[in-house]
TrEMBL record:
InterPro entries: Mannose-1P_guanyltransferase, NTP_transferase_dom, Nucleotide-diphossugar_trans. Residues 13-238 form the Nucleotidyl transferase domain. This is Nucleotidyltransferase family protein. It holds the Pfam family NTP_transferase.
Amino acid sequence: MTGTHAYPYPTQAVILAGGQGSRLRPYTDDRPKPMVEIPGTGTPIIGHQLAWLAAEGVTDAVVSCGHLAEVLQDWLVSAELPLRVTTVVEKEPLGRGGGLKFAAASLPHPDRPWYATNGDIWTRFSLREMAAFHHERDAAATLALARPRIPWGAVETDEFGHVLDFIESPPSPYLINAGVYVFSAAFTDLLPERGDHERTTFPRLARERRLAGYPLPHGAYWRAIDTAKDLTEAAKELAGA
C-alpha cells in the first residue's frame, strides 16, 4: 500500500504480551494482562489492538507471549481475527528489547519496516501518519509520545503563595513513551539479545539523532491499562465516546 509519500506503510507488527500484570490482580490471576477485558466490551485488550492494527493496514502480527501463554493462544485460536497472527513464547524472560528481537525473527518480511506495541496499551490514532513521520525523518526507530493526565488534582499558586485555582487531573507537562513504535528493517539488528532496549538501543540512537518522537495527535485516545482503576476509567470513557 502506498500513500502520498509513495511510502510502503508497514503491514506487520509485534505485540509484546508477556507481562504478568501483578497490579491488575485479581483480573490477572488466571490470564495474562492483554487478555483482561475492558468492562462492557466483551473483548480483551489484545482483541482491540488487533482490530486497530488491521484497520491500519497490518496483515500479519506476531504476539510475544510469556505468563499464562496458553490462555492467550487458546483465545487466538477460537477468535475470529481480522489478520494473520503468529505466537512465540519466551522460554525464559528476555527483557523488552530481547523480547522484541525474538518476536521480530518471526515477522514475514524481515527486510521491511514494522510496528510494535506493548500489550497493555489501549489507543486509537493513525499509524499510517506515524509511519509517514518516521519515513520523513529517516529514523531507525520512532516512538509515539503521549501526555497522560496526572492522577491527582493540581494546585495553581501565584508568586506570593496564594492559591489561585484547583485543576482536576491536568495533562502532564512531560511527554512519555506511549508504548507504540515504528521500526526500520535495520532496527532489529540493533536490539539486544536480552535486556531493555530503552536503556541500550534507544539512548544510542538518540545520541546519533536516529530516534524520532511522534506526539499523539490532539484528541487521540490513549491509556495504559496498569491497574483496576484504569479498567474502570477506560470503560467510562468508552461509554461516553
